Amino acid sequence: MPHTILTDRCEGVAVCIDSCPVACIHPGEGKNAKGTNFYWIAFDVCIDCGICQQVCPVDGAIVAEERPHLQRQRG
Q1: pTM of the model
Q2: Where in the numbering of this chain does the 4Fe-4S ferredoxin-type domain appear (predicted)?
Q3: DSSP conformational letter for 15
Q4: Can you give the residue ranges of every domain in the chain?
Q5: Residue of 44, 45, 43, 41 lying closest to 62 (CA atoms)
Q6: Per residue in 19-48, pLDDT tens?
Q7: Which fold has domain 1-75?
């Protein structure tokens, strides 16, 4: 099952992008509830490796399950 970036917790640090082996993490449009940039994971591309979750410095911004209602492409 793919990982999910929680849009309203993401702070746009973006270390996950360079770490992802399949390039499934993309910048979101607009800002999240915090007013910061955010990223999202393409569920159909994610291979569930968990590297994004390991490298993310924002506690709880990425979860190890698919939660489309908590991840948006637009802010």
Answers
A1: 0.95
A2: 1-30, 37-67
A3: H
A4: 1-75
A5: 41
A6: 999 999 999 999 999 999 999 999 999 999
A7: Alpha-Beta Plaits (3.30.70)
